[in-house]
């Protein structure tokens, strides 16, 4: 199996050219932590840690998995030691406030690091991702006492965090939750069962802090009656150390297709007197509080799609460079060649590469908008950037994870029959990628969130603003010489126009009958992903052209950026924009098919 190499150069290009690190460094709260030279050093060190420590454990985790013995969850060999090194080197504290022990770096930088952790070892990084979300949630909605109790320990990595939403009868329908919370003095007693709890327990941290959705005795029905509670595995003492065991336990671990070293637990709360928990935020406002953590997780699950695609691409590329097979059409005198010489293999590799670059760029630009929405001094800018994040969150999550699985499948195809053999390791990436399309809201839910909510918020202002940005980038391209730049411009204009037409049709369908719009939501999400990717790749081409004009030394790298952007425009944009047909037509075929007709 090919070892992973963190894509530091490509990530640096995005952070230097598509993201404005200098502007982030000027915002209150960041300063030197966002300075480009500091970020460069962080990327290099993170790459070394991901390559040398986390990546070699990835196949170990797949083979051994997590296991439950006598109520204790054990991680695979080497995982606790690697996690300890991760925390000791300060990686767990990167994006958080120095007030609670964090390093105060932008989420933009942290998201770039998260890609490396997820590529190197997705099962281990899953726990780190959820702890980051728990910190975000408690910092936003927790009381002063809760922040003082939990944030320093979570940020240091001594304690980990989880998200407890789903129950056996509920699935994604959170209005059906039955877990109960009964008031008792300054706390509550929690009783109920939660399923699919990622990193519900493990032997790497001294405490696990569960954020649990539950109902108060007099709560309204449905999602309006859900509250959020912090329920630790061990009750914290006044001095910050762990005290007695809370009344909660892991009932079982799921046996999964992939992602085997990430313990997915069935959790039981209150087998005896009830687990002790404390209210986070206001009563019956738990879903609003939890969405802070969920949106954080949705962006980072999108990054998981990018990460698994990058790792699968690297392995496919190495194999294609080494595998000798066949002769080139019309070139039989040249003898047998490595398969990277075959046009269709090159097409597959370029297809993977172009989409990875587009996804990475979109995720980091969205993260930049997230930072600006919190830290920019101008309220109007904060609001506008928040709208952009809202619009792009389901796109980053849904589009990137769809592609993560598809690219892992393409990487297996490059391997031919050898890819179907577990020993080559490529099958693990395909198996690991599949869950990303399901958890944190299935991609069908992401598509409906995009169409049913984000598309029409503020009368569609966020999408209109984004389409104007796409056209402004196209106008910049019009000033550039060369067939490549003009091809990129032509397809970017086409994408913007087609997205506008599709969005207008969907808005009309929403007003007429939301089911008609829902039938076209998934193809529209793909259109939005590719359209946003086309914009990212167009900007990438413009920045590469500017650097070439300046005479920067790495000309081959910059020329490849332009060539990759042209491929994205010419090969990927047209079929995606053709999805406007099913966006409009699906209602005529999907809706008449009754349940009995299947």
What do these coordinates show?
The chain is of the alpha+beta class. It has a domain at 451-593. Helix content is 58%, strand content 11%. It has helices at 8-18, 21-25, 36-54, 58-64, 79-88, 107-120, 122-141, 144-156, 286-322, 343-375, 379-415, 426-434, 443-454, 461-478, 483-512, 514-519, 521-550, 555-577, 580-590; strands at 67-69, 72-74, 159-164, 180-184, 187-198, 207-214, 227-232, 234-236, 242-245, 248-253, 264-269, 275-280. Strands 3, 4, 5, 6, 7, 10, 11 and 12 form an 8-stranded mixed β-sheet that branches. The chain has a two-stranded antiparallel sheet with strand order 1-2. Strands 8-9 form a two-stranded antiparallel sheet. Strand 4 (180-184) and strand 5 (187-198) form a beta hairpin. Helix 15 packs parallel to helix 18 (555-577). It is globular, with a radius of gyration of 24 Å.
The main β sheet shows up as: 8 strands, mixed
Mean pLDDT: 96
Using only C-alpha atoms, the radius of gyration works out to: 24 Å
Query: How would the global form be characterised?
Result: globular
Strand count: 12
The assigned structural class equals alpha+beta
Helix content: 55-70%
State the separation between the terminal residues, measured CA to CA.
Answer: 43 Å
Number of helices: 19
Oligomerization category of the chains in this entry: single chain
Q: Which labels suit this protein?
A:
598 residues; alpha+beta; 8-stranded mixed beta sheet; two-stranded antiparallel ribbon; 58% helix
């Amino acid at each position: 199996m090919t070892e992973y190499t963190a894509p530091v150069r490509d990530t640096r290009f995005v952070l230097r050219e598509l993201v404005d690190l200098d502007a982030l460094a000027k915002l209150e709260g960041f300063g030197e932590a966002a300075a480009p030279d500091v970020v460069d050093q962080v990327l290099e060190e993170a790459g070394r840690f991901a390559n040398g420590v986390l990546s070699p454990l990835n196949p170990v985790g797949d083979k051994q998995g997590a296991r439950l013995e006598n109520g204790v969850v054990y991680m695979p060999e080497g995982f606790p030691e690697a996690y300890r090194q991760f925390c000791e080197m300060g990686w767990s504290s990167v994006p958080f406030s120095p007030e609670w022990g964090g390093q105060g770096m932008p989420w933009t930088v942290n998201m770039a690091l998260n890609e490396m952790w997820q590529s190197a070892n997705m099962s281990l990084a899953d726990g780190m991702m959820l702890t980051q979300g728990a910190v975000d949630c408690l910092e936003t909605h927790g009381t002063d006492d809760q922040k003082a109790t939990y944030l320093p320990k979570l940020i240091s990595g001594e304690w980990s965090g989880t998200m407890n939403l789903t129950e056996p009868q509920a699935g994604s329908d959170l209005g059906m939750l039955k877990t109960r919370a009964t008031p008792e003095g300054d706390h509550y007693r929690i009783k109920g069962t939660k399923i699919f709890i990622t990193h519900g327990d493990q032997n790497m941290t001294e405490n696990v802090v569960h954020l649990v959705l539950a109902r108060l005795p007099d709560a309204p029905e449905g999602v309006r009656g859900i509250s959020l509670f912090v329920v630790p595995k061990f009750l914290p003492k006044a001095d910050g150390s762990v005290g007695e065991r809370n009344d909660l336990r892991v009932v079982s671990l799921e046996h999964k297709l992939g992602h085997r070293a990430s313990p997915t637990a069935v959790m039981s709360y209150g087998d005896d007197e009830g687990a002790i928990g404390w209210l986070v935020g206001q009563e019956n406002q738990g879903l609003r509080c939890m969405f802070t953590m969920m949106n954080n997780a949705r962006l980072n699950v999108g990054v998981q799609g990018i990460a698994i695609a990058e790792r699968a691409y690297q392995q496919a590329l190495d194999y294609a460079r080494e595998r000798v097979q066949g002769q080139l059409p019309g070139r039989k005198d040249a003898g047998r060649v490595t398969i990277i010489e075959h046009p269709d293999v090159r097409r597959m590799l370029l297809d993977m590469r172009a989409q990875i670059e587009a996804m990475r760029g979109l995720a980091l630009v969205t993260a930049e908008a997230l930072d600006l929405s919190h830290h920019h001094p101008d309220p109007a800018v904060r609001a506008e950037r928040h709208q952009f994040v809202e619009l792009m969150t389901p796109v980053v999550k849904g589009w990137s994870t769809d592609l993560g699985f598809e690219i892992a499948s393409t990487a297996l195809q490059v391997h031919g029959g050898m890819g179907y053999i577990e020993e080559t390791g490529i099958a693990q990436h395909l198996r690991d990628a599949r869950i990303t399309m399901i958890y944190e809201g299935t991609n069908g839910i992401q598509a409906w969130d995009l169409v049913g909510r984000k598309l029409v918020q503020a009368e569609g202002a966020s999408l209109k603003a984004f389409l104007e940005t796409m056209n402004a980038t196209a106008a910049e391209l019009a000033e550039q010489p060369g067939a490549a730049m003009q091809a990129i411009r032509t397809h970017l204009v086409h994408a913007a126009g087609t997205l506008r037409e599709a969005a207008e049709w969907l808005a009309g369908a929403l007003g007429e009958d939301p089911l008609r719009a829902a039938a076209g939501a998934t193809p529209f999400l793909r259109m939005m992903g590719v359209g946003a990717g086309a914009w990212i790749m167009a900007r990438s081409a413009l920045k590469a052209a500017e650097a070439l004009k300046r005479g920067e030394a790495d000309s081959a790298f910059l020329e490849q950026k332009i060539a990759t952007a042209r491929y994205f425009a010419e090969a990927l944009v047209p079929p995606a924009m053709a999805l406007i047909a099913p966006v409009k037509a699906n209602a005529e075929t999907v809706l008449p098919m009754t349940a009995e007709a299947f």
